[in-house]
Specification:
mainly alpha; transmembrane helix
Length: 388
């Protein structure tokens, strides 16, 4: 019990670099609430797959994702198993649960609740940074800078709850801009406290698994909502193959080597690309699951509607665009050939989205699955990347 009462500790430095660093049980428990949040976001998108519906999905997805990012980067440097840390994480989980509840009509009648929930989640993070800075003088410049920037953003979200739409959403945008800009402009402080290079890839991988899990749930839901027949079963298999292939090409190529190299050379741009480059990937993965669900639920003898076809093909294309960026910048396995492969898959999927007006659902899901499986085949032909 005494060890639980100790203050936060710095988890980086030469004395700790040799220690294996993995996600803690508290972090894994914390991730559970994001399983619910991603599920609610996907369900909300499923009700409106139009362009405006997708943009609304993105607008709500980004704050939820950013809350997870904030907690992950704090834990990377300052995590400790104390009573105070556990309680603060519990409060933040309640705030994320409130975000999930307010996702439905989150850009309308529930937007006040969504704004207050986000402000509360970010407020907890501000407290954690101030707490860490109080006990760790060497980290105080970084923690004060982060706490100041995040506090400004949280205040804007709090104020937004008391102003009418559309000014509320303008404040959301400004608040997110401040949130995103804070780590981007803190390089001079980050140089003194580089990130732990074992912990970060694992945490991002876990969130990717959460989003891929939603895609698997969507396949199951799609089959459960229709009368079983050979066509729906085959479409479900194609949908699963798509998710499995995306899992394969990401986790086959993800490695901590790029981050280790960046840490050695103090190339903090790699950290930023790692952070922001994963956003379109997880958005695409979450939306792809909804697209598969709609394709399975569509009458097998009717052409897949334009919105559903664009959602499925466009979201998977977005995944490959993100993977191409990550390959090209060396965030994951640096390879020009695999960058071209991912861009080729993106182009092929967009062709299907544009020209596949009369295609049946089973045809669209089959083509998407074949394109994704081809990416796995190309990687296997080229050989496995070396791991550090």
């Amino acid at each position: 019990m005494k060890s639980w009462l100790q203050p936060p500790r710095l988890r980086i430095g030469e004395e700790n670099e040799a220690e294996p660093r993995h996600a803690t049980w508290l972090e894994l428990f914390y991730d559970l609430v994001f399983v619910v949040a991603v599920s609610q976001l996907a369900h909300n998108l499923s009700k409106d797959v139009s362009i405006t519906g997708f943009l609304g999905f993105v607008m709500l997805f980004v704050p939820v994702w950013w809350v997870w990012i904030g907690s992950t980067f704090y834990a990377n440097r300052f995590d400790s198993d104390t009573i105070g840390r556990r309680l603060l994480m519990g409060i933040q989980m309640l705030a994320v649960a409130a975000l999930a509840i307010n996702v439905h009509h989150g850009l309308d009648s529930s937007s006040v609740g969504f704004a207050l929930s986000y402000a509360a989640a970010r407020g907890v993070l501000v407290i954690e940074y101030l707490w860490a800075g109080w006990y760790i003088p060497t980290a105080r410049k970084l923690t004060n800078y982060y706490a100041g920037g995040f506090a400004i953003a949280a205040t804007l979200w709090l104020i937004s709850a008391f102003v009418p739409i559309p000014f509320r959403f303008i404040l959301w945008g400004i608040g997110l801009a401040v949130d995103f800009a804070t780590p981007l402009t803190a390089q001079r402080f980050q140089l003194q406290l580089p990130l732990h290079l074992e912990h970060l890839p694992e945490r991002f991988g876990l969130f990717t698994i959460i989003v891929l899990g939603e895609a698997i749930i969507a396949v199951v839901n799609g089959v459960a909502e229709v009368e079983w027949d050979g066509i729906s079963e085959l479409a479900a298999i194609f949908g699963f193959a798509t998710a499995f292939s995306l899992w394969w090409v990401y986790f086959e190529n993800v490695s901590g080597s790029a981050l280790r190299t960046a840490g050695a050379l103090r190339k903090f741009q790699i950290y930023q690309v790692w952070l922001y480059g994963h956003l379109p990937l997880v958005i695409g993965l979450a939306a792809a699951g909804v697209g598969v669900e709609h394709a399975i639920a569509t009458e097998s003898n009717l052409a897949l509607s334009n919105p559903d076809r664009w959602l499925l093909c466009g979201s998977v294309a977005l995944c490959y665009l993100a993977l191409a960026i990550l390959h090209r910048t060396g965030v994951i396995f640096h390879c020009k050939a695999r960058t071209r492969h991912r861009l080729g898959a993106m182009a092929a999927l967009l062709v299907v989205a544009i020209a596949g007006t009369n295609l049946l659902p089973i045809t669209v899901t089959a083509i998407v699955a074949i394109i994704c499986a081809a990416q796995v085949g190309l990687d296997l032909y080229q050989g496995r990347p070396a791991t550090a």
